[in-house]
């Protein structure tokens, strides 16, 4: 009997020919695959064309798995007896095997959420397919049309919301001195690979994506209005040629722009870009520093009178490796800052030529540019080694005092904050606080976990935080953070505020942001602007909320405790201060002025003292300018008088 005219049992009450079933299969497939394609826009609030390759791969794999599941169901109904015992294992292999492979490969919570949700939709749709054969074909055709319209409308709505700013999200974070307002602007920038860097350009900002696209960014802090514009030119990175020449085992997504810097000139701006460059004839790669000049208007419009010029290239040109990471572009370093108007500092990573993943130990080889920080003369392109022994220095900043700070990825553990000095050797790969992946030690170290033979970092993170760039804070906006370093993190999805006194790191305060931070910059008004691996721009500002008493007391907690009245540190313990006379705590040495005051601490006297300690008690030993804001003083005084009997708990 021909199967094309066979009547096939479906749910026990209906029967269909193979041709009818095939029509149902096509119609239902087109209609129900909509949720699979629709899920990313619904879950992320971003249009499909703004998703990165990892997210798009997840969608493609799930759509393919779903289509395979439908096909298996179709074949099961046609050849019920032959496939009866094979259906379930095949279904599990195709659907769940592909999904768990994806989760294992990327180990990403967002992808996991997307896959899990899509799996649930897939299972629902496959169940409906078994029931759908009882529906008229016209209904399935209508559902197909409706699904297509919904997909288009959802994606169009994501585009519209992104353009109108409706996707802006606000959250609050409490820190030691400030309540922060975190504003996220998702989906404004398109890029095909991870990476991306920020710099200033006039009153606005310039962003280069990892794949070399350039955007101008304008931001109005008062209105929370952030606008982006794709520029009509890009960084001179020859990624297409690299991809064409590379073999399958090469991760071409690591071939990227590593930094951008706009230097102001009397006639306009000189824009520097650090990026990988592939030399096809020699089949090798290097890190190149390129530049172009023009006014801000010319740079934004793309009407410069010159093309990109090469200032410097690292040497030697490196071949692709046969083992490990064939191309370890993620260890490029490649950060730029200016030492003076004629000298660029460029950090260069070792690209995994470290003696462990390769025979060469380039960071300790003075004839090599890799694993170094370099001083480059802009006019001549000549380079000199500033420091060596670096693995992957992804952050660089020259502070207002001329100190050169660098942040550096360790192996597994041992991310570093380094203060760079001329001709110093920072030890990599012979010393590190980290270890190798899959091993309990670092193989090349003769003194595990120590930094006794080479220049030690100013601070190190164990375990690693996935360190990226850093800046220092100016006095205009976050005044209580003035001169502190702000370090960005990818793995911890946080900022770290580093307090440095007398060249020593006193503490590191973590500030949760919630996204992998690739770069950061201090805005013209003092707010922080972050660029993340989700193609989002984030601003960090002071919250309009005044704060709570515990937070207000944080400004005092460096010198005072609230414990039992006797646990004095630099200043006296403030337990139960209300009603006490000044200068009467046991076992604490006060200034003569405070000991001779005949008043008692109450709201009025505390307010006068906290407003200006020197004016209220001339000669007081408390070196503190006071709290000028009356509202902040009130909150602090309420805390001291009402909650002072409790131990201080800062979280």
What report would you give on this structure?
There is one protein chain. The protein is an alpha+beta fold and 651 residues long. The protein folds into 3 domains: 3-161, no CATH class; 168-542, TolB, C-terminal domain (Neuraminidase, 6 Propeller); 549-642, Cytochrome Bc1 Complex, Chain D, domain 2, CATH 1.10.760. The chain has 14 helices and 29 strands. The strands form 7 sheets. The chain has a 5-stranded antiparallel sheet with strand order 3-4-29-28-27, with no helix packed on it. Strands 9, 10, 11, 12 and 13 form a 5-stranded antiparallel sheet that branches. A 5-stranded mixed sheet has the order 14-15-16-17-21, with no helix packed on it. Helix 2 packs antiparallel against helix 6 (109-132) and helix 2 (34-44) packs parallel to helix 7. The longest helix has 28 residues, at 137-164.
How would you summarize what this structure contains?
With 651 residues, the protein is of the alpha+beta class. It is built from 14 helices and 29 strands. It folds into three domains: 3-161, no CATH class; 168-542, TolB, C-terminal domain (Neuraminidase), CATH 2.120.10.30; 549-642, Orthogonal Bundle (Cytochrome Bc1 Complex, Chain D, domain 2).
């Amino acid at each position: 009997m021909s199967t094309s005219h066979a009547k096939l049992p479906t749910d026990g009450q209906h029967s269909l020919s193979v041709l009818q079933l095939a029509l149902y299969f096509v119609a239902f497939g087109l209609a129900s695959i909509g949720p699979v394609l629709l899920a990313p826009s619904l879950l992320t609030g971003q249009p499909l064309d703004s998703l990165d390759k990892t997210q798009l791969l997840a969608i493609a794999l799930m759509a393919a798995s779903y289509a395979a599941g439908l096909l298996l169901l179709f074949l099961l109904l046609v050849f019920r007896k032959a496939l009866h015992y094979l259906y379930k294992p095949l279904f599990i292999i195709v659907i769940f095997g592909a999904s768990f492979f994806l989760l294992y490969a990327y180990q990403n919570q967002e992808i996991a959420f997307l896959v899990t949700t899509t799996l649930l939709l897939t299972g629902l749709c496959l169940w409906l397919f078994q029931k759908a054969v009882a529906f008229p074909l016209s209904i399935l055709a209508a559902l197909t049309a409706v699904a297509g319209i919904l997909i288009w409308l959802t994606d169009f709505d994501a585009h519209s919301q992104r353009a109108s700013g409706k996707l802006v999200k606000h959250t609050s974070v409490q820190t030691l001195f400030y309540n922060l307002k975190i504003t996220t602007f998702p989906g404004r920038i398109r890029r095909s690979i991870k990476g991306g860097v920020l710099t200033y350009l006039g009153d606005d900002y310039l962003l280069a994506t990892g794949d070399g696209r350039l955007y101008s960014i304008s931001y109005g802090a008062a209105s929370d209005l952030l606008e982006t514009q794709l520029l009509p030119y890009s960084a001179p990175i020859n990624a297409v040629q690299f991809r064409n020449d590379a073999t399958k085992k090469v991760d071409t997504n690591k071939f990227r722009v590593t930094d951008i810097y706009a230097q102001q000139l009397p006639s306009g701006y000189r824009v520097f870009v650090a990026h990988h460059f592939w030399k096809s004839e020699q089949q090798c790669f290097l890190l190149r520093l390129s530049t172009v000049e023009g006014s801000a208007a010319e740079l934004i419009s793309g009407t410069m009178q010159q093309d990109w010029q090469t200032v410097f290239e690292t040497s030697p040109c490196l071949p692709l490796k046969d083992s490990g990471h064939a191309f370890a572009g993620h260890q490029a370093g490649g950060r730029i800052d200016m030492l003076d108007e004629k000298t660029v500092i460029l950090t260069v990573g070792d690209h995994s030529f470290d003696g462990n993943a390769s025979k060469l130990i380039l960071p300790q080889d003075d004839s090599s540019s890799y694993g170094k920080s370099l001083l480059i003369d802009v006019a001549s392109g000549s380079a000199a080694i500033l420091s060596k022994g670096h693995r992957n220095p992804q952050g660089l900043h020259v502070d207002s005092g001329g100190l050169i700070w660098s942040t550096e990825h360790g192996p597994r553990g041992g991310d570093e904050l380094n203060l760079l000095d001329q001709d110093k050797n920072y030890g990599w790969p012979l010393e590190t606080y980290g270890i190798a992946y899959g091993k309990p030690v670092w193989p090349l170290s003769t003194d595990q976990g120590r930094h006794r033979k080479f220049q030690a970092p100013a601070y190190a993170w164990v375990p690693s935080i996935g360190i990226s760039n850093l800046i220092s804070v100016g006095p205009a906006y976050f005044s209580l953070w003035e001169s502190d370093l702000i370090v960005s993190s990818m793995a911890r999805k946080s900022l770290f505020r580093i307090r440095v006194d007398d060249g020593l790191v006193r503490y590191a305060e973590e500030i949760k942001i919630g996204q992998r931070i690739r770069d950061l910059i201090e805005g013209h008004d003092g707010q922080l602007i972050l660029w993340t691996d989700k193609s989002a721009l984030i601003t960090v500002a002071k919250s309009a909320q005044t704060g709570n008493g515990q937070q207000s007391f944080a400004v005092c907690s460096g010198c005072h405790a609230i414990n039992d009245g006797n646990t004095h540190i630099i200043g006296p313990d403030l337990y139960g201060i209300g009603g006490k006379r000044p200068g009467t705590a046991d076992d604490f040495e006060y200034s003569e002025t405070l000991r001779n005051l005949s008043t008692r601490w109450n709201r009025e006297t505390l307010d006068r003292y906290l407003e200006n300690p020197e004016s209220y008690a001339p000669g007081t030993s408390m070196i503190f300018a006071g709290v000028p804001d009356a509202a902040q003083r009130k909150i602090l005084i309420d805390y001291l008088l009402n909650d002072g009997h409790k131990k201080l708990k800062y979280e």
